[in-house]
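Just wondering, can you check both lines?
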Amino acid sequence: MMETYCRALMLMNHQIGRRQFLGTVASALAFSQLPGSWLWAQAATPSSSVVDFIHNEIVTGSFPGAGLLVFQNGKLVLEHFEGTYCSSTVRDNPMKRDVTHMLYSFSKGVSATVVAIARQKKLIDFDAPLSTYIPGYKGEWKDETTIRHLLTHTAGIPNIPLGTVYTEEEWQKAVETCCAAKVEWKPGSRSEYHARSAMFLAAEAVRSRIAGRPSWESICREWLLDPIGATTLSFLIPTSGAVSITPQPKELPKPLNPATVGMAGQPGGGAFGKLDDMIKVLQLHLNGGTWEGKVILERESWAEMHRIQYREQILQAQAENRKPDHEPFALGWKLKLNQKGDGFGVGDQTPEGTFGHAGIWTLMGMGFPQKQGAMAFISTNPPTLPNLSRIRNGITDRVYDSLR
């Protein structure tokens, strides 16, 4: 336990005076029997607001446990893990940093980055008809659909009932299902969240252009995950190590396999990983697409992932005092424009350009270009939906405010 305290204190030592630092060490030693999260809240003066906020949500029953990592300029500035998580066999395990999580729709930020890399490799074009890559996707508005529409939730296919795509047989069946589905509106005319279908089709477009049709996992591994050292981030179901299951099942045991993981293999929701590897993906984007001096994401591709694609339409609607037809999506990421109470948690007090993605009701990763900061947060069970936006934006705003 004291190792955690000392790590917290070393991280804050550069921000406070020597006398205050030594006094805090003494306090930590004196109260070493208290939960680590509480001592962290006392010690981490610049970030105590967000830690207290999370602690209060756990105490009042919003969720049983939570984890938060905050990095600035590529360095860890806050590490906070508190409460418990549920594994496939045991409930109420102590929450810790070395736990793998179901990343759900944060997967979209990962997959969109890989799709953007495919574009810079000249395998695809964001604005070519999707039927160029998926010949069966034709007819009516399908002929107008592009990968740009897929990556901005404007393709008009939010309700296609797709299951797992963990095997090639399941993947091909999902392609057929998408090709047979009806498009609900003219692509590009409005946005509505596409949980699975859009990112799946974008990934299929990329796979179709590579000899041998390698798996989405292997493409992501080669082009993105291995180059940035995201060793735990994967579209494969973990077979070892500590893995948290969220939402928590009513009954245990609940083995992790394609039959029990509803998003298994889905490019838009099937990734697993630790919070550290979420941070690495965000940091790549904060770096402008480079990693340790190597260009992973070329500037033009990076810029498309950080430009609100329908910004003018949104602002025009607001100027006319009507609800916009579009949301502030870039290609893959959700961006902050001027919205309040955003369900993804981009913050109420954060500036335009803040980017990131949430994963169902439990997880979010955000990047703050203005402060070169990144955060990854997970709760180990969903809060009630009426509290979701308050909690997410409350955490994001407090983290952003703590960065200098």
The first strand starts at residue 65 and ends at 72. The chain has two domains: 1-34, 44-404.
